[in-house]
Amino acid sequence: MVELLPGPGDNATLMVSGFGATDVAEPLADERLAHRVRSADDDLPGVLYDRDPAWAPYFCPICERSYCVDHWRGSRCPYGH
């Protein structure tokens, strides 16, 4: 699950949870990045991964696909990337 929550202060906080033991809570001081996250739609995993791979540990940039925890293989997608 990816959520963009208000705070701290005027900033937003990005919350990524539900992929195994990997959870992220990161304040987004850059309003441009917050806007990209809000408007990304289907490209959200790619936007998150480009900023920090830990924000989208379920995304394979080679396949350009997201995978569930059942299909992810350690640190690799089902196709070995």
UniProtKB/TrEMBL annotation:
Domain of life: Bacteria
Protein name: Uncharacterized protein
